[in-house]
Specification:
Keywords: Aminoacyl-tRNA synthetase, ATP-binding, Ligase, Metal-binding, Nucleotide-binding, Protein biosynthesis, Zinc. It holds the Pfam family tRNA-synt_1c. GO terms for molecular function: ATP binding; glutamate-tRNA ligase activity; zinc ion binding. The protein folds into two domains: about 150 residues, HUPs (Rossmann fold, 3-Layer(aba) Sandwich); about 110 residues, Glutamyl-tRNA Synthetase, Domain 3 (Glutamyl-tRNA Synthetase, domain 3, Alpha-Beta Complex), CATH 3.90.800.10. By secondary structure, it is α/β, with parallel strands linked by helices. Helix content is about 35%, strand content about 15%. The protein is elongated, with a radius of gyration of 21 Å. The termini are far apart. It has a five-stranded parallel β-sheet with strand order 3-2-1-9-10, with helices on one face. Strands 4-5-8 form a three-stranded antiparallel β-sheet. A two-stranded antiparallel sheet has the order 6-7.
Length: about 325
């Protein structure tokens, strides 16, 4: 294991920190806001700081980040400054890729999504994992494939050459969770730094040792924790929480109706009512329909058994134009 580069040293990790890290692709919906409330509560109940990060390496909708921060603040979430914006940290991610490259842990991948989809349909390939198509190509084969990609106007992605097949993380709700580790992309063919790399570097930089997020990301945690270990970064503990679903049992989405604070405000819901619904979904007695709740009050009364009971259903009011 190599020494931790100075660029990864946390801002302030004396007491640890939790975080919330939205992607600015649109308004946060009730499921996102509920997870943020849980993350804030877990951090403060355990004496940690609470940090915020805007994960804006990929798709970004203009004005979305400011709107998301305003919604979080309206619910009473306060965070320790500064907010970290990932697009300001590209050089740090490239330094990490160089570090991994010097260890012989990076290789070019020439596969398209279709190539990977067809390869992973084979019965001996674990669903959702990369089959290693480009892992052991010869120099001659690599040169040939670079030419082919160039003629198509494409560039190769970069993958981590994993030395393990699985890794174990600790999760507050799932316990010890062991999942597969494959050769994840660390830089896409279009040059965008991959989420799996950026998230572990930024968590270390912000002093995050408690990661709370939706349980749809639990399966990716072993890959991220393994990658962090290769970079010499401190481990984190996880708390993956069940998602909010629509009445059909599908992930809540904008198409379901009024699911964001902006849309709900148009139907007469204030921040009080949104927080009350979230509190009720977390097992806070008497929260349904309550007014004047504060986030610290909600945090102290959350039923963590309720949190871990499974997905929550929200039947959104329909917008007039829907």
């Amino acid at each position: 294991m190599t020494a931790t580069p100075s660029s990864f040293i946390p801002i302030n990790s004396a007491g640890g920190a939790g975080r919330y890290a939205p992607s600015p692709t649109g308004d946060l919906h009730l499921g996102n806001l509920r997870t943020a409330v849980i993350a804030w509560s877990l951090a403060h109940l355990s004496g940690r700081d609470f940090k915020l990060r805007v994960e804006n390496l990929d798709r970004v909708r203009a004005g979305s980040a400011d709107g998301q921060l305003a919604d979080l603040a309206a619910l009473g979430l306060a965070w320790d400054q500064p907010v970290v914006y990932q697009d300001s940290r590209i050089a740090v991610y490239e330094d990490a890729i160089e570090q991994l490259s010097q260890q012989g842990l990076v290789y070019e991948c020439y596969c398209s999504r279709k190539d990977i989809r067809e390869a992973t349909s084979a019965p001996h390939i674990l669903p959702g994992t990369y089959p290693g198509t480009c892992r052991n190509l010869t120099d001659e084969e690599r040169a040939t494939r670079r030419v082919v990609l160039s003629e198509q106007g494409r560039s190769p992605s970069l993958r981590l050459r994993s030395e393990v097949s699985e890794f174990t993380v600790q999760d507050q709700f799932a316990g010890a969770f062991t999942g597969p580790v494959d050769d994840v992309v660390i830089r896409r063919g279009d040059g965008v730094i991959a989420y799996n790399l950026a998230v572990v570097i930024d968590d270390a930089f912000q002093g995050i040792d408690q990661v709370c997020r939706g349980d749809d990301l639990l399966s990716s945690s072993p890959r991220q924790a393994y990658l962090a270990s290769l970079l010499g970064l401190p481990p984190v503990t996880y708390a993956h929480v069940p998602l909010v679903l629509n009445p059909a049992g599908e992930r809540l989405a904008k198409r379901d109706g009024a699911v964001s604070m902006r849309d709900l405000a148009g139907l007469g819901w204030g921040a009080d009512q949104v927080l009350a619904w979230i509190a009720s979904s977390l097992g806070v007695e008497g929260a349904e329909g309550a007014t004047g709740l504060t986030l610290p009050e909600v945090a102290r009364q959350i039923s963590w058994e309720t949190v871990n009971n499974g997905p929550v259903i929200f039947d959104p009011p329909q917008l007039a134009h829907a």
